[in-house]
User: Which sequence fits this backbone?
């Protein structure tokens, strides 16, 4: 038995969570914010371990590896992301990734999961935690450069904390900004 009730024989089973599986978990944004704030505290205390991104460039884009863990937790992980041009893939998302989770003690793989929802919501939670300490409490306007997943999740997160009345959005494609 490992972590929060995950029961499995290490090395014999790997949990796979698809994009739909992750969305079905319906994790409240407030819980993600609390986790992000705890991660920043761990970083300040020196218990969080993170390395700079590793990048592999190709003609169609690049691939990024991001690794990290917290010393007193059961698991560590790596996010592997491919970033390519949407113009070459028929409108598919241009950022796609997976997260691989390993047992911190044995190194055995435990789970592989889609990273889209986690990337968007985690990034929004970082913005919300930063705004909690840096923004004026009555802030009512916001601006975005790019109008994809991260903009949508940032808007959702900041709406919870601020009485937003004004929004400006810019994107490479006018219709995307207008839709946003």
Assistant:
């Amino acid at each position: 038995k490992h972590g929060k009730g995950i029961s499995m024989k290490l090395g014999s089973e790997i949990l796979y969570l698809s994009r739909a599986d992750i969305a079905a978990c319906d994790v409240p944004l407030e819980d993600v914010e609390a986790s992000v704030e705890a991660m920043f505290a761990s970083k300040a205390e020196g218990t969080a371990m993170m390395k700079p991104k590793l990048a592999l460039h190709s003609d169609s884009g690049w691939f990024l590896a991001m690794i990290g863990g917290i010393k007193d937790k059961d698991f560590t992980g790596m996010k592997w992301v491919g970033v390519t041009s949407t113009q070459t893939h028929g409108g598919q998302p241009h950022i796609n990734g997976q997260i691989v989770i390993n047992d911190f003690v044995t190194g055995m793989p435990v789970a592989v999961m889609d990273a889209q929802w986690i990337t968007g919501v985690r990034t929004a939670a970082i913005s919300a935690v930063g705004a909690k300490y840096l923004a004026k409490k009555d802030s009512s306007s916001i601006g975005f450069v790019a109008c994809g997943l991260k903009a949508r999740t940032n808007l959702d997160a900041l709406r919870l904390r601020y009485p937003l009345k004004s929004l400006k959005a810019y994107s490479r494609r006018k219709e995307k900004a207008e839709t946003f």
